[in-house]
Amino acid sequence: MSVYQGVFTPKQDLFRYLLPSGIPRNSLVIIAGEGGSGKSVIVAHLVKDAILSGEPVVYVAIDDDPQTILNQLNTFGVKTLEECNSKRLIIIDGFSYLMQFKKPQPCVEEEIPLDSPGKLINSISRVVDKYKITDKGLVVVDSLNDIVMLLDPTRVVEFIKSLRANFAKARGVLTIATLHTSTSSFKEYLLSIEHLVDGVIETGSIPEELAQHIPIFVRQIIVRKMRGVDSKQGPVLYGIDREGLKPVILKISGSTK
Question: Where do the domains of the chain lie, and which CATH numbers do they carry?
Answer without folding.
Answer: 7-247 (3.40.50.300)
